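Quick one, T. Sequence first:
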Amino acid sequence: MSRHVVSTIQAIPPGSRKVVEVAGRSIGVFNIGGEFFALRNRCPHQGGPLCFGRLSGFPTARVPGEYHYTRKGEILRCPWHGWEFDVKTGRSWVDPKRVRTHSYPTRVEAGPPIQNTAADGASGETIEGVIAESYRVSLERQYVVVEVP
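Structure tokens:
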């Protein structure tokens, strides 16, 4: 299992997501109430970009007429055909025993500052006539790490 630092925790605030490329896979990283979860960005139904879908929850009722909205932001709906998945497990809401998208272990780790490699503090590179400048950057934060087999 290989570990990949995909983001700082500050870059994915609660209720949001970030889609990243890890080991040739598109993976969505979600922050639900300060916990991080990672899902393959591919719906098992027809390969749609699952992690760009709408996050929602479910209404529940103990008795008729008494409704409560539960699991807010924990259910992901595929933008292509509306298939719903539990962000925490990757399992389909309709058929959790047979249908799922791949989920990846995540954790938050403290780490040393990440710095770019520009020796003089700034560098430039020309790509098709566009100049991209980079500057020395240091981030002293906690990082979200995704484990990929």
